[in-house]
Amino acid sequence: MSAKSAINKEVFTPHDEKMLVAVQVKRRTKKKIPFLATGGQGDYMTFICLSVTNKKPSHVSITKVKQFQGSLSFSKRLMWTIDQLRQVNGCDPNRDCPEFDLAFDNAFDQWVAGSAGEKCTFIQILHHTCQRYSSQSKPEFVNCQPKLLGGNSILHSAADSVTSAVQKASQALNERGERLGRAEEKTGEMKNSAEQFAVTAHKLAMKHKC
Asked: In what order do the strands lie in the sheet with 44-53?
């Protein structure tokens, strides 16, 4: 099982939530840790997750999840509602890059994703989710490539693929129906020809008998 599947199963499913997307990240700039806060749990992996409740009305959350070295479990560290998100900064509108920033009412983090592709997928789905679920003012998306915010998102591409598959299946059924229709017409014609032949043969037989 992948880490993201495990996070969904362990962190979100027990709370009747569904994880929409997750991106593994590291900080671009290390936070200053107070002297008395030393002696932590060592190295860890961090994931930023987007989730929605299964029950209506839907509530969307952005959650920071960590997995500490040597542990198989994941722990929820911080959580924000989607309405607390103020800005998403893609860092470069002209090329794919793994860096992005998230600004909330009470927090600001600068992240670098595991890959540019992971970051792009996360921002695409986050933008789509904000447009759908944000009840207050929607967050600002800045320095993001147009493909991440417009009609070329993976969600639209997936919808287009489904539509295309349905259209192809419908066309195939129509063509099959037309072939069956032609076969039925030919069968009917052959039946009529056979009946006419039988009638003609019967008349000839009666004529010769007489």
From this structure: 75-81, 60-68, 44-53, 17-27, 108-113, 99-104, 85-89, 140-142
